[in-house]
Specification:
By secondary structure, this protein is an alpha/beta fold. It has one domain: Maf protein. Helix content is 38%, strand content 25%. Strand 1, helix 1 and strand 2 form a beta-alpha-beta unit. The longest helix has 19 residues. The N and C termini lie close together (11 Å). Its cofactor is a divalent metal cation. One of its GO terms (cellular component) is cytoplasm. It comes from Enterovirga aerilata.
Length: 204
């Protein structure tokens, strides 16, 4: 599959997410992952309230791509981020089991929107961004079901926005999922591939 990639070096992914890396590798793109070293919470705080969820995701994705691109100006860099929007609020990673249970209780029986953004950087600067959205609806879940999931999912429930990791046990929580699969997983592949094609980095 590497024959599809025309770059002189592997694509740099400004993320340590195994899911995002697997999405790119599944599309035949050789990838090297680099931790961007961006404090997302501090950056979000500096942006201030009132920013649309999609714009926030794009800003965070761009900051990650730019941070890595500054260190590797001769490489093509991809940054990505995802923001969960629910009732005009952006929900982050719960961090604790109790917070995960609270988030899932709020989302149960309701719909929310995932905004996934990707930013591409070349020559040390961000050259393009794209935002895709998906709409997800959780089943009606009682406290016992939520507690069972959080216990079974373990760390995965604590480090995913909303308290679920849909590519794992979290799929059991949903009644409806509307959106492109990679968008839901946090790296919208279709616009990513389109941007790489514009740079003549893909043979297909």
């Amino acid at each position: 599959m590497a024959v599809l990639w025309r770059g002189r070096a592997p694509l740099l992914l400004a993320s340590t997410s195994r899911v995002r890396r697997k999405l790119l590798e599944g599309a035949g793109i050789p990838v090297e992952a680099v931790a961007p070293g961006v404090d997302e919470r501090a950056l979000q705080h500096s942006i201030g309230p009132g920013v649309a969820a999609g714009d926030l995701a794009a800003h965070l994705a761009g900051a990650k791509a730019e941070a890595v691109a500054r260190q590797h100006p001769d490489r093509v860099v991809i940054g990505a981020d995802q923001v969960l929007a629910f009732e005009a609020e952006c929900l982050g990673k719960p961090g604790t089991r109790e917070a995960a249970r609270r988030q899932l209780a709020r989302l149960a029986g309701r719909s929310h929107v995932l905004h996934s953004a990707v930013a591409l950087a070349v020559d040390g600067q961000v050259r393009g961004t794209a935002i895709e959205t998906a709409r997800l609806t959780l089943r009606d879940l009682d406290d016992a079901a939520i507690a069972l999931y959080v216990e079974a999912a373990g760390e995965a429930a604590l480090h995913s926005a909303g308290g679920y990791e849909i590519e794992g046990l979290g799929i059991h929580l949903f009644s409806r999922v509307e959106g492109e699969h990679s968008t839901i997983l946090g790296l919208p592949l279709l616009p990513t591939l389109a941007m790489l094609r514009e740079l003549n980095l893909l043979a297909l």
